[in-house]
Amino acid sequence: MSTPPSTVTDLLERLVATGGRPALTWYGDDGERIELSGAVLGNWVSKTVNLLVEEFDAGPGTDVVVDLPVGWRQTVWALAAARCGAAVVLRDPDADAADADAPDVVVTSRPERWAGTTAELVAVALPALARRFDGDLPPEAIDAAAAVMTYGDAIGFDPAAGRPAPLSALPGADGAAGAGDDAGRSLVRGAGTVRRALGETVDVWARGGSVVLTSAATARELAQDASRLERLVTSEQITRS
After folding, report:
1. pTM confidence score
2. Domain 8-235: CATH class, spelled out
3. Exposure check for the chain: N or C terminus, fewer CB within 10 A?
4. Res 99: pLDDT
């Protein structure tokens, strides 16, 4: 086995190098299925890094709260914030925004929960085909669905150059060292905390595998329907569930 990735940059470079191989397959609510290859995932992260840097000067010393449920968008935003060197804090769906320390940037699907914050706000629409945030935006908030695609596919100014964030900068990824057997095609169930889901995803990638990630609701449905779970394992060629 090759040397395990030790930084977020290493991890992303390895994912991009896999080209068209599926890196993340997402099963959301209402039958939504999205598949991201390593190259496409890297492209999303690069665009998002550029938005964070160009709009908010994000980098080492910036605190970014990712207030999104388990999902491919949450994964991309967490990776991007860590890739530009910012400190990443994940918020579970049932967490109260008022409990958070005052961050610099908040990336959220529920901007109304952050009314009165001094942080810069990014509003994220969760549906895969969304082209804008479906709801009222607070003044000065950025609509991620409309903005991210306008940024470059390659990272421009890199505030983390020369001091890339360690893999442990991703919440939940403290133990992701890439050791052990190849992770294969692994099922990550989204019914736990967002931190746990992200940590499991990073661990699979660090061990050379690909991820099938489910929403919390889908994970609960699969737990109650053995035949549906078996069909998913077969159709997605899951080797670890």
Report:
1. 0.95
2. alpha beta
3. N
4. 59
